[in-house]
Design brief:
This protein has 201 residues and is of the alpha+beta class. The protein has 2 domains: 95 residues, Ribosomal Protein S4 Delta 41, Chain A, domain 1, CATH 1.10.1050; 86 residues, Roll (Structural Genomics Hypothetical 15.5 Kd Protein In mrcA-pckA Intergenic Region, Chain A). The longest helix has 16 residues.
Length: 201
């Protein structure tokens, strides 16, 4: 299954944000990579800013171009603010929900956990990271996977109250997708309107 496998610190430095999670390289070198990365850069064009925002969203959620365009087209057909709907669709991906529930320490790790059949949705094993979770769906760790070190370590001390659109039952290791998140509840630093403007050209 296609996904970005290149150097993550380089991408984080490009955007100046830890979009893949905590990044030690970014903490030391908070400027773009390359020979002239630490020099002042010329002002970006409007198109450049829009493209940058789209790339940031793609890398953040681990989505490739075709998937991202399909999600945008789907968002365009749904009633609501197009940019906000796009982010809601990205937040509804199973790998992202697994990450938000604290079952995995990062989205790439959540993707692996889903692919390796450690997660169920409404009692059935789902191994498709892009699976769209619906309000009311119950996401759980499979019984035989509950003692996995990576899952136990991720859940230890995780604050499950920070995302109001999901809830977590620590005893049964199950989570529930309550409703689609409002824009103010999505913590990602993404200017979604720029993405809408880019695709609307």
């Amino acid at each position: 299954m296609a996904r970005y496998t290149g150097p993550k610190s380089k991408i984080a430095r490009k955007f100046g944000e830890p979009i893949f999670g905590e990044d030690k390289v970014l903490a030391k070198k908070n400027y773009p990579p390359g020979q002239h990365g630490n020099n002042r850069r010329r002002k970006q064009s409007e198109y450049g800013l829009q493209l940058r925002e789209k790339q940031k969203a793609k890398y953040t959620y681990g989505v490739l171009e075709r998937q991202f365009r399909n999600l945008f087209e789907k968002a365009s057909s749904i009633k609501g603010v197009k940019g906000e709907v796009l982010l809601q669709l990205l937040e509804s991906r199973l790998d992202n929900v697994v990450y938000r529930l604290g079952i995995a320490p990062s989205r790439p790790a959540a993707r692996q956990i889903v692919l390796h059949r450690h997660i169920t949705v409404n009692g059935k094993v789902v191994n498709i990271p892009s699976y769209s979770v619906k309000p009311g769906d119950v996401i759980a760790v499979r019984e035989r996977s509950k003692s996995l070190e990576v899952i136990e370590a991720a859940l230890a001390g995780f604050n499950h109250s920070k995302y109001p659109w999901i809830e977590w039952d620590e005893t049964s290791m199950t989570g529930k997708f309550l409703h689609l998140p409002a824009r103010e509840d999505i913590p990602e630093n993404i200017k979604e309107q720029l993405i809408v403007e880019l695709y609307s050209k």
